[in-house]
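Q: My labmate handed me this sequence with no annotations at all. I'd like to see what the chain might look like in three dimensions before we decide whether it's worth expressing. Could you predict it?
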Amino acid sequence: MLKIGFVGGGKMAQALAKGFIKAGLTKGELMLASCLPTDETSIKEFTAIGSKAVFSNSEVAEKSDVLVLAVKPQVVKTVLPELKECIGSKKMLLLSIAMGVSLKSLESVLPAGTPVIRVMPNIPVLVGCGATVYVKNKHANDTHAEITRRLFSAVGLCEEVPETMINPVTALAGSGPAYVYMIIEAMADGAVKMGLPRPLAYKLASQTVIGAGNMVKQTNIHPGQLKDDVSSPAGSTITAIHCLERSGLRAALIDAIEAATLRCKEIKPMSEID
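A: Here is what I predict for the chain of 274 residues:
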């Protein structure tokens, strides 16, 4: 089992830690997270899973086999110098989930030859249904890539991509759960308006999203064809689809992903952060 260290103990670090434990890849006592002394919530969450929360980033690096960089992008430039000595001496693998921080920016601060893999997971890793992509630098070998795949495949889908795809992936999979939560909420609201009790409406709406997603994933049938298969002539589904088209559902989602991608590009790279 891997000794995994989290530099930063926020929501994504917590989700990954719980997901890795649930998948049997590690144990709570084999993980360590650095948290701010004032971040009582993160400290409590890691303590609850049997892990230790400390206030030293270098201590996390010293006691780990794999290091997960899970801090806000504007903090990366401050944090990495604290880790250089330990990372360099151990030649340890660094997995960065810091949004918008490129491999080039990370390498500019780290010791030469450090294996770095940039990873973009999403929050459903907590329930084993994450959608994760990764891109490795030239110093990360097949073993490093296999460790990454093993970790993140255990908590959902994991695919390797070129770094140029990270921003649209962030807009689609990283931000995507928020879009789906809004859709589930709106579907449930509609059902409540028409007489369903809210708890049942949320159950049915969420299960419908899960089922539809699995249909697309497991059958490899185009979603347009699956939509046509449940749209009977003059039926309720095609009538509802007409309403959605008239309200611009497709255009709204396309616009949202475009806007989120462009926002990712606007975030300053680490080298430009004061």
